[in-house]
Amino acid sequence: MREKDILAQQVVEHMMEHDKFSQWLGIEILDIKEGYSKIQMTIREEMTNGFGIVHGGIAFSLGDSAFAFACNNRNTLSVALDTAINFLKPVHPGDVLIAEAKELHNGKSTGLYHIAITNQQGHVVAMFKGTCFRTAKKLV
């Protein structure tokens, strides 16, 4: 394993240890590499809206966590400048969602990430895009 990927994993472990919301969501880390993250969660009944489908904020939050883990894992504190999501298919209780964040641009002060959110059948249910601003602060 590359030294950069080991640091990336250590940073994300530190983040998860302090991220109460991602813990509440039930997020599990599947894979971390420099500028990349893959996470999953199982949808619970209390995550549904009044239409009986999962609240859009849940899929957004999963994408946002994948984005945060990917853009911060170089041990440089990065914050969101802009995010957007497109919902493509409904999500239901019991579904297992996987968010895979890929870095498209790693600049000195900004980064751009696309996050595909898929269900257990491999269907893309949402696409999340995030732009981050990089600070000079270290996380660990």
What would you note in describing this structure?
The chain has 140 residues and is α+β, with helices and mostly antiparallel strands. It is globular. 28% of the residues lie in helices and 39% in strands. The chain has a single domain, classed as Thiol Ester Dehydrase, Chain A, CATH 3.10.129.10. The chain has helices spanning 3-18, 20-25, 56-72, and strands at residues 28-33, 36-42, 78-87, 96-106, 110-118, 124-134. The model has no long low-confidence stretch (mean pLDDT 97). A hairpin with a 3-residue loop joins strand 4 and strand 5 (110-118). The longest helix has 17 residues, at 56-72. The chain has a six-stranded antiparallel sheet with strand order 1-2-4-5-6-3.
Overall number of structural domains: 1
* Main sheet record: 6 strands, antiparallel
The whole-angstrom Rg is: 15 Å
| Euclidean distance between termini CA atoms | 20 Å
Uncertain ranges: none
- What name is given to the CATH topology? Thiol Ester Dehydrase, Chain A
Structural class call reads alpha+beta
Q: Into which percentage range does the β-strand content fall?
A: 35-45%
Tell me the name of the CATH class: Alpha Beta
Average the pLDDT over all residues and give the rounded result: 97
Assigned CATH architecture: Roll
Total number of beta strands: 6
